[in-house]
Structure formats: structure tokens, C-alpha cells
């Protein structure tokens, strides 16, 4: 077979539509019997790998703004992971499956009960056999229906009557393609991709007439279930093994997203088999039950609200209009307690009057000169920040990533000019699980695949060792090592607090081996953990600090590298710079922040309120929460995966008026502004307790 020529496909702008899916995790997945040609009980199945692949698929859907509802898996029903076979939800009608094989028969009752509990009733049952979206695929205002191996032809008429939609019968003739969704994929309301040899001659003629511009799959792509795909009208989630089909889909204006679901292929299923779409007549009626109410409606708003914004974030469906203190008000007038604090950038609350006043005053004077001239605000700002950090020199920049990049450059220059490392051979040791930004050099030493994949080639010169392992760090230091870059507490990784001896040992190793210790305090510093700088909890003073986020007072980006002159003094005019770095407006705001921190009240507040927050959070352990970590007003909360993903919990919290952010699966981060009150902390934890099913 050949693929439709890309040149024959007109250039069309493909628009995504937010979808709602049901999925069942493969916790009990095995291949103990054979009911299709793909299944071989003698082939070992790695259930743990199947779960990991399934979680990745779910993560992809959620990253695209779709909502995933989880159906509880049942012991003894290994094929329940193929949720698409559980039924059909379309036009306000839900039809539960009636399975052809006794091995799967019990699944029907479980799915029917879940549909009813989720508010998708009334739930219909057909007289004859049909296996849901395995054989019923919705294409615009019609349903394509497969028959030949599983679904009985008579159910096509039943489904047409129940849904009120025309049903087109298609006969499958190749047992390898026993369900329609294995041989045909729906791309949007008008377009499909399919594999003609799977169909009878009459059915091929029907498809050719209905879809003259369809994409035709090759033998190779069909045999890896490349057509078992899920599309939102723009993004096409499909197996990463169907490369030619992916190229044809891309040429047709869609964006294919490859996912490895190879373990589920051993049971004869793929991407679509694991995904049941839930459709309703009224988009304001939400599926309820185990998931958050209103997520679909909010996700629709999210997609519509930002059609011209690059999709490098998957924000919660809250559109801020105003903010003050610890509260954000959305465009509909609903108030939310901000427990994220813009990843510590809003440590002092939204629009703190003192910081706003400093910005307004400077706006009336001068905002930007570039560093081609001096400004009267720069030296006072740098002097005050250097004093706060116990250093004598500051390199002002804008964003946190710029501060880290600048520190890396300084460390290399110091290594060549001061330590005597041969030119071009300097190396810097970093920690596993790190997050220092997303520039090319920084992602070069990240171990986060989302940050790295597709962005190579990468910058050399970095050596990664496990976070918290001082022995591994010591072993990695050699004559080319110029610096160790470390977060005192890892933020993006889930607020990971290191062993108590870790940072002191890092300091000792760096001193002994003549290596710079760089502490990335961009999230952990400036009062967040109860001290001005988080390293103070361990009595450690690094050679270099990188600062940002809170340094801008929640007003504008301000960052800095802070060190003594024997380190920062290696820079000379023309070797490094920034047009906006240290601009008068930034310096005025940053100086105000430093003055506020010099008073010490913010650090004390973070300590006292942090103790209260952590005590309340620890009471949730064993009640939907597995672990709590952090210091001060900074917490990482591991939620029991059976409660939901971190994003699902955040969506439910948002419905209750609390804003938080997830990271790495089922982990939440809390970093409320330091202006939050005890009562507000208690209220926020109460909402979390309700969401995770605890009464603590």
C-alpha cells in the first residue's frame, strides 16, 4: 500500500477541540488467554511497564488540555484497560458494551455502573453483542460501525435508534483487525485514516466514496496498530512506531504525537483502545463522580481564551483579572487563594503597597538607560543586595535562567583565569532531578525528558550526580571541575529537602578541591523557607548565589548573581551583559525588596506560618496523602495515585477556590505568599483534605 501523497492534501488549519476521556489503568493487565491474534499467553507481560506507558499517555492528554476520568480497574479483568470497548457515549446517549467473549463479559457491568455513577445515564444495553468504541467510531454527524469478528451487525440498527445518528456498516475481513478502531482512525469530523485490506470490497467502496481524501496506511504501520489513534482535530496521539503514517498525518496539517504503548499491544490494543471519549449534548453538564466538577467547561474556556499563545504551558482553567495580597480574582469575579505564589515570585503578595509605590515613583523618573550609562539606582541596589547576602559584588540580570547562565559563564571564566584549568576543558557538576531553567545550556544537564527531548544538540561540560549523595559528588570532582551547581532544596522536583549533612559536605568538598559552590536560591531564597537564604538552615555559605523570582517583588523580572569580587571580578567589559539587566525600574523594585527582607519580619513569618502549614499537612498522611516535605511556607505533597494525578487534585482545589500546582505525577507544590494568614492556611488545608477524601 502507499500513503496519500502529501502534495495532494490541501493546506488546512486544523483546530483542536477539548475532549473528555475515560481510561482504566492496567494495574491488573496480563495476557493469560488468547481471544485475538495478537495475544500470546507464553509471552511475558511487564505490568509495571504497562502502567508507566499508560500514565504517559494520560499525561499527554492532560498536557493538551483534555480531561481524563479514571475508571477503577477490577481484579481478574486484565482487558479492562481497553476502555474504548466499555461502551459508546454520544449525543447525550450512553450505551454499555455487551462482550463477545466470556473472559470480558463482566467488564460490561462495571462500565455500565461507572457510566451511571458519573452522570452519563440513562445507560442503555443492547440485545446483541457490541464492544463500544472498538467498533463504533463517531465521524462528524455519523457513526462508522464495524462488524465481522466482535460486534453483531444487528446492533448497528439498535445504536442508530438509541443515538438518533445514521450508522454506516463496515465489514472487517482480516482477524488481525478484529475491531474497527484497529483498522481506521478518526482525525476530525470529515477526515479519517484507514487500512483498506482490513475491509471487504464493498466496505472499501463505501469508505472511498465517503472519504475520498482519507489517509491510507501502509502494511507496516497498520501492523503496529498505527490507526488505533486519538485525535482532537489537531493533535493526533498515536503509537510512535507508525512513522510513515505519522508523516502523512503531519503533511495533512495535523500534529502527530508519538507515544510508546508497546506493552498493551501484547493484548491487541493501542492508544484508542485505552481511550473512551465521553460526549454530551450540553457542554455545561459535567461528568462527575471521582473527578472534579466543571473541568471540561473550564478546559474549553482555556483553549478558546488563548488561541494565539504558544502551547508551552498547560495552565489551570483560571483567568486572572485582578489580585491583591494572597488572593486572585478571575474574569467572572470569583476569588481564589493563591497557594502557588508564582513559584515564589510573589513572596510578598500581589501588589504589595510598598513595592508598588517604589515602582510608580521610579516610573515617573527613568525606567531604562541600558548599561551604556550609569543610573542612580543601580549601585544602591547592588550594595544592599550584596550586604544582605554577605558578599561584596552583584551581577544584575533579569530572569532566573539568565542568572544561572551567567553564573555558569563566571564559573568557567574563573576556572580558566584563577584555577588554571586548560582552556575549553572546564566542567561543572550538577545534581540529578535539577531544575535551573529551560535554556539550551541548562536543559543540557537536565534529566527531565520533557525539557530535553527535541532540543539537542546539547552543551557539553556538565557532569550529573545524584542529588543528596555527597560521596558521588566527591568522586566526580577532578582537575577540570570548576563549580558545583545545586539547589539547596529542589523545587520543581517536588520540594526535595536534602539530608542534613549534604550541603555542609558539598561546601567542604568544594573548599578542599578548589571548586566554586553555586547555590541556586531562585525559588528557595529571599524568605521562602524561613531564612533569607535556604542554605542558612545548614550553616553553609556558598561562593555564588543565583537569585530571582521574589527579587522582582511580583512586579517585574529581576535576577542577580551574587559573589565576592575574587569571583565576579573575572568579568571585564564586553564579556557579558544585558540591556535590561539592572535597569533603574528593576533596581528600584529590587532595592525595596532587599530593604523589606533586611527587617527580618518576613523570614520570621515564613517560619511561624510554615510550622502551622506543615503540621496541618502532616495530619493528612494516610488519608489520601503519602508524604509531605519542605521548609517554611514551601511544601511538596505526594498524593496517593488512587486519589488522582497532581493536576486532577489541583483542578479540584481550583473548584474550591484554592490555586496550587502539580509536578511529576501525583505531587503538589504549595508556595503561598508570605502575607497569607493562619486562618487562610487552615482553610486551604481543609479544602485539600476534602479533595483527597480526608477529614483531618
From TrEMBL:
Matches recorded under CDD domains: OAT_like
GO molecular function, one term: ornithine aminotransferase activity
UniProt pathway: Amino-acid biosynthesis; L-proline biosynthesis; L-glutamate 5-semialdehyde from L-ornithine: step 1/1
Keywords: Aminotransferase, Pyridoxal phosphate, Transferase
Protein name listed in UniProt: ornithine aminotransferase
Gene name of the record: rocD
Organism: Gordonia sesuvii
Gene3D superfamilies (alphabetical): Aspartate Aminotransferase, domain 1, L-arginine/glycine Amidinotransferase, Chain A, Type I PLP-dependent aspartate aminotransferase-like (Major domain)
Cofactors: pyridoxal 5'-phosphate
InterPro entries associated with the record: Aminotrans_3, Aminotrans_3_PPA_site, Class-III_PLP-dep_AT, Orn_aminotrans, PyrdxlP-dep_Trfase, PyrdxlP-dep_Trfase_major, PyrdxlP-dep_Trfase_small
SUPFAM superfamilies: Pentein (SSF55909), PLP-dependent transferases (SSF53383)
Amino acid at each position: 500500500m502507499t500513503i496519500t501523497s502529501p502534495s495532494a492534501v490541501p493546506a488546512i488549519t486544523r483546530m483542536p477541540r477539548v475532549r473528555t476521556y475515560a481510561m482504566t489503568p492496567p494495574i491488573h493487565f496480563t495476557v493469560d488467554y488468547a481471544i485475538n491474534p495478537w495475544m500470546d499467553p507464553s509471552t511475558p507481560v511487564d505490568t509495571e511497564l504497562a502502567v508507566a506507558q499508560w500514565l504517559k499517555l494520560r499525561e499527554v492528554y492532560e498536557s493538551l488540555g483534555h480531561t481524563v476520568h479514571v475508571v477503577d480497574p477490577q481484579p481478574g479483568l486484565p482487558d479492562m484497560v481497553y476502555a474504548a470497548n466499555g461502551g459508546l457515549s454520544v449525543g447525550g446517549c450512553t450505551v454499555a458494551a455487551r462482550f463477545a467473549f466470556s473472559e470480558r463479559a463482566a467488564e460490561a457491568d462495571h462500565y455500565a455502573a461507572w457510566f451511571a455513577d458519573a452522570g452519563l445515564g440513562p445507560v442503555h444495553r443492547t440485545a446483541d453483542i457490541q464492544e463500544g468504541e472498538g467498533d463504533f467510531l463517531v465521524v462528524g454527524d455519523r457513526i462508522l460501525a464495524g462488524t465481522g469478528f466482535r460486534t453483531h451487525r444487528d446492533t448497528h440498527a439498535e445504536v442508530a435508534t438509541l443515538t438518533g445518528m445514521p450508522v454506516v456498516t463496515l465489514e472487517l475481513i482480516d482477524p488481525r483487525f478484529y475491531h474497527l478502531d484497529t483498522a481506521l482512525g478518526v482525525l476530525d469530523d470529515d477526515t479519517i485514516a484507514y487500512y483498506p485490506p482490513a475491509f471487504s470490497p464493498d466496505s472499501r467502496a463505501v469508505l472511498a466514496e465517503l472519504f475520498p481524501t482519507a489517509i491510507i496506511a501502509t502494511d507496516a504501520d497498520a501492523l503496529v496498530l498505527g490507526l488505533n489513534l486519538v485525535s482532537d482535530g489537531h493533535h493526533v496521539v498515536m503509537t510512535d512506531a507508525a512513522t510513515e503514517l505519522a508523516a502523512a498525518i503531519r503533511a495533512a496539517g495535523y500534529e502527530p504525537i508519538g507515544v510508546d504503548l508497546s506493552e498493551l499491544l501484547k493484548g491487541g490494543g493501542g492508544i484508542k483502545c485505552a481511550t473512551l471519549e465521553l460526549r454530551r449534548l450540553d457542554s455545561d453538564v459535567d461528568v462527575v463522580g471521582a473527578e472534579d466538577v466543571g473541568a471540561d467547561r473550564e478546559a474549553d474556556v482555556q483553549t478558546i481564551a488563548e488561541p494565539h499563545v504558544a502551547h508551552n504551558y498547560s495552565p489551570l482553567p483560571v483567568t486572572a483579572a485582578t489580585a491583591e495580597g494572597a488572593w486572585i480574582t478571575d474574569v467572572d469575579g470569583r476569588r481564589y487563594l493563591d497557594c502557588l505564589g508564582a513559584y515564589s515570585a510573589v513572596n510578598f503578595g500581589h501588589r504589595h503597597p510598598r513595592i508598588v509605590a517604589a515602582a510608580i515613583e521610579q516610573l515617573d523618573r527613568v525606567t531604562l538607560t541600558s548599561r551604556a550609562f550609569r543610573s542612580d539606582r543601580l549601585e544602591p541596589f547592588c550594595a544592599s543586595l550584596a550586604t544582605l547576602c554577605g558578599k561584596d559584588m552583584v551581577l544584575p540580570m533579569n530572569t532566573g535562567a539568565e542568572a544561572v547562565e551567567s553564573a555558569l559563564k563566571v564559573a568557567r571564566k574563573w576556572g580558566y583565569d584563577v584555577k588554571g584549568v586548560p582552556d575549553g576543558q572546564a566542567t561543572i557538576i550538577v545534581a540529578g532531578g535539577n531544575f535551573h531553567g529551560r535554556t539550551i545550556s541548562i536543559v543540557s544537564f537536565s534529566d527531565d525528558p520533557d525539557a530535553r527531548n527535541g532540543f539537542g544538540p546539547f552543551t557539553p561540560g556538565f557532569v550529573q550526580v545524584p542529588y543528596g549523595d555527597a560521596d558521588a559528588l566527591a568522586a566526580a570532582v577532578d582537575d577540570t571541575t570548576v563549580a558545583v551547581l545545586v539547589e539547596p532544596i529542589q523545587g520543581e522536583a517536588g520540594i526535595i529537602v536534602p539530608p542534613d549533612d549534604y550541603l555542609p559536605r558539598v561546601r567542604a568538598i568544594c573548599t578542599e578541591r578548589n571548586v566554586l559552590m553555586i547555590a541556586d536560591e531562585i525559588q528557595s531564597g529571599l524568605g521562602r523557607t524561613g531564612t533569607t537564604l535556604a542554605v542558612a538552615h545548614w550553616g553553609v555559605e556558598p561562593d555564588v548565589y543565583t537569585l530571582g523570582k521574589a527579587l522582582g517583588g511580583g512586579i517585574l523580572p529581576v535576577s542577580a548573581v551574587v559573589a565576592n569580587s575574587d569571583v565576579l571580578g573575572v568579568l571585564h567589559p564586553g564579556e557579558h551583559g544585558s540591556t535590561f539587566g539592572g535597569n533603574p525600574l528593576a533596581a528600584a523594585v529590587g532595592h525595596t525588596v532587599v530593604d523589606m527582607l533586611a527587617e527580618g519580619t518576613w523570614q520570621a513569618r515564613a517560619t511561624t506560618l510554615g510550622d502551622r502549614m506543615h503540621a496541618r499537612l502532616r495530619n493528612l498522611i494516610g488519608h489520601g496523602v503519602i508524604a509531605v516535605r519542605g521548609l517554611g511556607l514551601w511544601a511538596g505533597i505526594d498524593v496517593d495515585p488512587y486519589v488522582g494525578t497532581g493536576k486532577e487534585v489541583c483542578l479540584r482545589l481550583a473548584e474550591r477556590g484554592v490555586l496550587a500546582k502539580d509536578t511529576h505525577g501525583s505531587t503538589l507544590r504549595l508556595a503561598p505568599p508570605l502575607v497569607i494568614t493562619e486562618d487562610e492556611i487552615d482553610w486551604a488545608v481543609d479544602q485539600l483534605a476534602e479533595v483527597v477524601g480526608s477529614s483531618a
